[in-house]
């Protein structure tokens, strides 16, 4: 039987080619031929090179094909050593010596479908294996007849895993000879693109063979939770059991977020059921006014505290708390003053803004409690307190709507409960910090502000961008139009949980990739863009078609026009999801200043368009302007990221 050796070359030195050729000759096969396939000038991938060699070998009537990398050594082997396993297998390999270790074939993870080499030596000489290393594969002509050639869609890596899996699926026998070994130098180990190519090949293999449940499992557990768990684990090593603590904290925090959004949505249903559009418009205006400076109140210190303080002294927490308190007091009076200026002709709204502005202190205290718990690795405590508070708050607010159906009662309850919540969080903080006194610490405050001011500016501009249409509707139209628009927009906001969840889980991954490999970051971005675009479009179309059928059960009477608002603005969802991908990438690439410029432009554009079209088209104009603004957002962010990528390419 004629043997065909197929060796794919890429920039391989002549000395290495000569060395391998001599080693193949030394095997002393009676009838053989070597096919060197040089991919240096025209490289379309390893699989294509192998297939070229196989086709040439088959033309020459080769009955056994041996595919080999040029960076292996067959020294001290003989022909009989390589052929022994052929008595039992259709496709086989030998044990591989690499990096001073021996590997005995490979196995495919049953869930993630990732290929891994086996280090445990088998008890028997000849054993079955999920796959054999592509650095040396022996296969009979019958294998080609049964399953064809290598899959050329793999540029490099995983073509061996794929081919072996196809062989096993066809009922062919795949295994290794554990007694006989060869050496693999793996010259590609120093290739800077190896990790990117390996990641792309692994992704292709997974998408080709994974079942639906495997895709869901890997997306949630491996791609979303794993990077965050690793980051949390680094911070909690001293406390022991970092993985268990991570899951408790992460799941409780996310469950709390989802529960709070659900409870607030229930409250919204009560609001539109028992309040007239005019009253609901006032309610929406008050909250828009109070929340407009929320990012300034936080000053980015919640994120700063969670990220930095666990590795710093606890004394800094007290300094941060004092800074947050001072800013909260300033913003409290600024919010009331701004409310008075905007609504001085309607003192009822000014009174409601005053009562609701105490939420500023509540947010300051609860955010500080969250930071404190992050210091101690017990974020779940904040989740518990938040959930209990929101359950009680929503219950009482809903009962007041059922009983009184009046705004004054609603805002008095808001005033009472949020002040109570602030005081409870303060007591919980003070319990763990016995020496808790006010002290001016300008040096620490300057450090906090220096690290967070850019994010404060982004948060403020983003908040203004999303609320400016409500203010202009009230000024140019009336509270009723504000109520109808806000009701439709509230249903749309419920879909933004996708963007919020994506931002929380994906940012740590992007940060890691940005430091490691820019090309790998870009590849991940492309996959995310495709996935989120499909998800966003599917959700938008579903809501567009189903909302006229379902929403009349929730929106009745004068609120029915809000359905039209939702059916328009919902098509901003895929655009917002796409923007989230670019925004996260720019954050981790330290290009936040570009985001500031983009949001500043968007605020001005949104203001001008609403100012021009609201007088004629009211909330319908605002709905369409939302979509138009998000289109501009996607264009600006994608162009910005394109030029960032160009700079990275020039640097590399």
Automatic annotation (TrEMBL):
<dbReference type="Pfam" id="PF01943">
    <property type="entry name" value="Polysacc_synt"/>
</dbReference>
<feature type="transmembrane region" description="Helical">
    <location>
        <begin position="349"/>
        <end position="371"/>
    </location>
</feature>
<feature type="transmembrane region" description="Helical">
    <location>
        <begin position="565"/>
        <end position="587"/>
    </location>
</feature>
<dbReference type="InterPro" id="IPR052556">
    <property type="entry name" value="PolySynth_Transporter"/>
</dbReference>
<feature type="transmembrane region" description="Helical">
    <location>
        <begin position="258"/>
        <end position="275"/>
    </location>
</feature>
<feature type="transmembrane region" description="Helical">
    <location>
        <begin position="321"/>
        <end position="343"/>
    </location>
</feature>
<feature type="transmembrane region" description="Helical">
    <location>
        <begin position="594"/>
        <end position="617"/>
    </location>
</feature>
<keyword id="KW-0812">Transmembrane</keyword>
<feature type="transmembrane region" description="Helical">
    <location>
        <begin position="453"/>
        <end position="476"/>
    </location>
</feature>
<feature type="transmembrane region" description="Helical">
    <location>
        <begin position="410"/>
        <end position="429"/>
    </location>
</feature>
<feature type="transmembrane region" description="Helical">
    <location>
        <begin position="623"/>
        <end position="644"/>
    </location>
</feature>
<feature type="transmembrane region" description="Helical">
    <location>
        <begin position="482"/>
        <end position="505"/>
    </location>
</feature>
<dbReference type="InterPro" id="IPR029044">
    <property type="entry name" value="Nucleotide-diphossugar_trans"/>
</dbReference>
<keyword id="KW-1133">Transmembrane helix</keyword>
<feature type="transmembrane region" description="Helical">
    <location>
        <begin position="383"/>
        <end position="404"/>
    </location>
</feature>
<dbReference type="InterPro" id="IPR002797">
    <property type="entry name" value="Polysacc_synth"/>
</dbReference>
<dbReference type="GO" id="GO:0016020">
    <property type="term" value="C:membrane"/>
</dbReference>
<feature type="transmembrane region" description="Helical">
    <location>
        <begin position="281"/>
        <end position="309"/>
    </location>
</feature>
<feature type="transmembrane region" description="Helical">
    <location>
        <begin position="529"/>
        <end position="553"/>
    </location>
</feature>
<keyword id="KW-0472">Membrane</keyword>
<protein>
    <recommendedName>
        <fullName>Polysaccharide biosynthesis protein C-terminal domain-containing protein</fullName>
    </recommendedName>
</protein>
